[in-house]
Amino acid sequence: MLDFDDGDGSPERPRVAPRDREPPLMDHAAGWKESAFTWEMGELVLARIAAGETVKQITDDPRMPSYATVYHWTRVIEEFGEAWQAVRRARCIQAKAADAIKAMAPPRRHWVSGKKSTYTRAQAEAVCAAIRDGASLSEVVRTPGMPSFKKVYRWLKRQPEFEAMYVAACDGRDRWLEFQGVLIAEETTPASFRANRERVARLDGRRGRMRPKKYRVMVVVSEGPAR
């Protein structure tokens, strides 16, 4: 690897990253001119490549020579071209070494640390079946053998499969309760009207309590000056 003077970190010669160095002045005007190459600029280009920058990143810097100019220098300035090839080879070796080290690293874990999940498909289906049949989640978790509130909410947060099942079950419960109300209404007679009306009202109230809460947004429109 070529050595570039980046300073030694002392107060007299503080260490400066190659891209933070002030490049030598260069004539960027269009038109024919003598070669603008200087070893001060050439070494800065090489140092920035050695530090990990791409040629495009370097030449995008308005203070630096253009991509075409740098490439031209590698063709016509023999020593610069040789140094250029040496730096590029060294960077390639470094990149391959980094890839090899990365390949040897242990794979990253894709699971959440802590206790093993208590989620099972059988329990998830039991919860959702009870909800589809009209039960609220509070009623489900009070049933012996059913998971607790805490477990259910953890499953909803971490198990996409259960979340989809739960949403579908809640929708099915709402439609089932609505259907029960329709059946009661169809069976109503003048004699049972008052009692059945109360039954339907209780069903509607239950549906409302178990639906997701929706909040209205009040929009206040101020009136303009009277005309």
Can you walk me through this structure?
With 227 residues, the chain is mainly α. Among the domains are: 39-101, Homeodomain-like (Arc Repressor Mutant, subunit A), CATH 1.10.10.60; 121-210, Orthogonal Bundle (Arc Repressor Mutant, subunit A). Helix content is 56%, strand content 0%. It contains nine helices and no strands. The chain has helices at residues 39-50, 55-59, 67-76, 78-104, 121-132, 137-141, 149-158, 160-187, 193-210. The longest helix has 28 residues, at 160-187. The N and C termini lie far apart (83 Å).
Which properties best describe this structure?
227 residues; mainly alpha; Arc Repressor Mutant, subunit A; single chain
**Secondary-structure element string:** HHHHHHHHH
Portion of residues in beta strands equals under 5%
Mean pLDDT score? 80
Radius of gyration: 37 Å
Share of helical residues: 55-70%
Shape: elongated
Q: What's the helix count?
A: 9
CATH topology of the domain at 121-210: Arc Repressor Mutant, subunit A
Number of strand elements: 0
Walk me through the topology.
Blueprint (H helix, E strand, L loop, with lengths): L38 H12 L4 H5 L7 H10 L1 H27 L16 H12 L4 H5 L7 H10 L1 H28 L5 H18 L17
Helix pairs in contact: 1-4, 3-4, 5-8, 7-8, 8-9
Write a compact overview of the structure shown:
The chain is mainly α and 227 residues long. It contains nine helices and no strands. About 5% of the residues have low confidence.
